[in-house]
Amino acid sequence: MQTEQTVATENSIHRTTLNWLRERGVRLEDIADLVYRLQGEFYPDLSLDECIHHVERVLQKREVQNAVLTGIQLDLMAEKKQLLSPLQDLIYQDESLYGVDEILATSILHIYGSIGMTNYGYIDRVKPGILGRLNNREDGQIHTFLDDLVGAIAAAAAARLSHSRKRARDLQNGEPSDPLTD
């Protein structure tokens, strides 16, 4: 007996990822602001539009979409107290020794190399912009996973931007391009 199963398309998964981020209060501009904070001092001509472009490209990666959807789902379940204990308490309280949220976030960072990890470590510690709001719990929502995922998306986009700028410079100088820019 075969059961009917809905197959998600690349486009539907991408749209769902963007919708879920928006529903949880995260705009692409919020993530782009983090990218700007990470890269602005290195590129004085950097614009928010360029940062948004790189955030959008990172969010087109299936690995990123999978991580975001998984993390948001776990946050929602913890909010509704639908997880079993002790996992419910660990996620609900954002327990400091529970590192699975960071592990899921680091899966995003590996796409663009080690510079993403450095960027992530910095913004995860400082929690600028949207990260501070997601981490403070003032809105009553649980963002145990989301704050780390947003930080990782920003760090990956910053790494992508940096690789892209280097590639453009290399091409201008007649050197081979870097494949990590896609």
Automatic annotation (TrEMBL):
Domain YutG/PgpA: 58-161
One Gene Ontology term of the molecular function aspect: phosphatidylglycerophosphatase activity
Pfam families linked to this entry: PgpA (PF04608)
Origin: domain of life: Bacteria
A GO biological process held by the record: lipid metabolic process
Stated name of the protein: Phosphatidylglycerophosphatase A
